[in-house]
Amino acid sequence: xxxxxxxxxxxxxxxxxxxxxxxxxxxxxxxxxxxxxxxxxxxxxxxxxxxxxxxxxxxxxxxxxxxxxxxxxxxxxxxxxxxxxxxxxxxxxxxxxxxxxxxxxxxxxxxxxxxxxxxxxxxxxxxxxxxxxxxxxxxx
Length: 140
Fold this sequence. Notes:
This protein is mostly helical. It has helices at residues 3-6, 11-39, 52-81, 83-104, 118-136.
């Protein structure tokens, strides 16, 4: 049995979206590492008492990590039933995390809301996952 027999034809888009999310997480992690050096925040200290900009950079990464496992699960579930739509929604969410971080990096936490459009992608894959579950139960 081949992978093509197990997964929907367009599931490659879902895989590529997940790869894009890895690029985003790596980028955010590198930004925190560089900020640790710049603001002299040593491991294992999570936040700085002196530099609120460092805290904003750290929070952008940390908040993304807090929601990432749920997004990843819903991305995969929704992608099994609706791979193309799920991928578009996933790209919206991942791209929004860049906007969220870049707003946060200014040092003004209110600017993190530049990434609020990501809720379209996040809630979208949740709803598609629910639809997939209902389809499996022949409720749709």
